[in-house]
Amino acid sequence: xxxxxxxxxxxxxxxxxxxxxxxxxxxxxxxxxxxxxxxxxxxxxxxxxxxxxxxxxxxxxxxxxxxxxxxxxxxxxxxxxxxxxxxxxxxxxxxxxxxxxxxxxxxxxxxxxxxxxxxxxxxxxxxxxxxxxxxxx
Length: 137
Known about the structure:
- The protein is mostly helical.
- The protein has helices at residues 15-19, 35-45, 55-61, 68-76, 103-114, and strands at residues 53-54, 89-90, 119-120, 123-124.
- The protein has a single domain (33-128), classed as Orthogonal Bundle (Arc Repressor Mutant, subunit A).
- The strands form two sheets. Strands 1-2 form a two-stranded parallel ribbon. A two-stranded antiparallel sheet has the order 3-4.
- A hairpin with a 2-residue loop joins β3 and β4.
- It is globular.
């Protein structure tokens, strides 16, 4: 096939264009936090003491299926005065997402154990993980 007869290729999506919708600014000068971030924060606030949920479960319960990374983004960018139980959110399979030698890993482990959650080898006990309902309150 010659160049003249080839169909034009569909424009490839760049990583930046794919991630841009996920990386909304947590504070916008005109309207405050985005509804997606607020929904995630509301779900995290509902995780009871002594339990944990995965980033994926939090995103699904906030009405954002497939957006586990956005749940992490929301926790990383929550206002300091919000005091959410961020330590109750773990990675897939109950794994603490921070590197094992980091102070954040030690802090999350300390807080979870303080609530009676068993943490072994950087993972919470499977019985501790809860599934959250699909509808944000």
